[in-house]
Fold this sequence. Notes:
By secondary structure, the chain is mainly beta. The protein has four helices and 28 strands. It has helices at 2-24, 104-113, 231-236, 337-342, and strands at 47-49, 57-62, 74-81, 90-95, 99-103, 133-144, 153-155, 159-165, 178-181, 196-201, 204-211, 215-219, 228-229, 240-241, 245-247, 255-257, 262-269, 274-279, 283-286, 300-306, 309-316, 321-325, 334-335, 346-347, 351-353, 361-363, 368-375, 380-383. The strands form four sheets. Strands 9, 10, 11, 12, 13, 14, 15, 16, 17 and 18 form a ten-stranded mixed β-sheet that branches. Strands 19, 20, 21, 22, 23, 24, 25, 26, 27 and 28 form a ten-stranded mixed β-sheet that branches. Strands 1, 3, 4, 6, 7 and 8 form a six-stranded mixed β-sheet that branches. The longest helix has 23 residues, at 2-24. It is globular. The termini are far apart.
Amino acid sequence: xxxxxxxxxxxxxxxxxxxxxxxxxxxxxxxxxxxxxxxxxxxxxxxxxxxxxxxxxxxxxxxxxxxxxxxxxxxxxxxxxxxxxxxxxxxxxxxxxxxxxxxxxxxxxxxxxxxxxxxxxxxxxxxxxxxxxxxxxxxxxxxxxxxxxxxxxxxxxxxxxxxxxxxxxxxxxxxxxxxxxxxxxxxxxxxxxxxxxxxxxxxxxxxxxxxxxxxxxxxxxxxxxxxxxxxxxxxxxxxxxxxxxxxxxxxxxxxxxxxxxxxxxxxxxxxxxxxxxxxxxxxxxxxxxxxxxxxxxxxxxxxxxxxxxxxxxxxxxxxxxxxxxxxxxxxxxxxxxxxxxxxxxxxxxxxxxxxxxxxxxxxxxxxxxxxxxxxxxxxxxxxx
Length: 384
């Protein structure tokens, strides 16, 4: 009887050890994400592209956290293709976060792959329509581990984005442009890689230029150093020249800018024979939909950060409205929603016409802090 008891105890002990071994070897096995992964953006109807804004973020993709029903590391690949079937695709970026930015330059690359361009004379051979609009397709690949053997993965639905390369307006042949090159013109320098173009309207040449204390010269022909028009040329022809410009007396008698560095509108008027400068001024945001309120005590300023582009970062709320003003303390300089709409601006869908009798701007998104950009060259108002 004693031997039988000992045998029973030994058997129970062996069962316990086997049970512990099973617990120690417990494994979590990743399963396909039950709800998959999908983009959470409110995508724009179209994305405007230009080489001048190449470094800007065109869109930041957001998506939900994939759940593989196990404590595993998850990696996300954002992929893009000009083929809706993704027979060939480009890896935009790899991240463990749930967002990825895509720049205008990246979309311009896809535009080139599609054969698009910014030439207003170029048309699609099949349709005869302007050759500057197309679609790029994006999808998300979420997977566990390193993406090699035994990987569990899932793909999102394909998201098309309509892109439009902004066409450059051809210059009127009867009124050719002037060009500025020189170290004083910050965005130009002494080369022909990025000269500043002064567009002509009835013999009046205008451009907004970022100026610093250095020298520059006008040119009649792009790329032609022999077509230069220096300070002495205009002075001897009887032009009245803004006092912030002087003769550099540098052997070439170039223009020298001696004012406060910044962005200026420069106008060469061949009719009045004047060359004038006007310093950049901000747009002011006033209203109960922005921190300023309906007063001039502390207005939000959208400052010109590069020629023709004004930006401001502020809190927008959906319980009020606002409008832009071009002159501080002057209620008569207001620019409401229809002003920009009628001028052909593409306005961010988070803004709407308030239809409050004054047609102010109404913010229709979730209240929060955004960067607003008013681009007077490309005629866009966008939010980031």
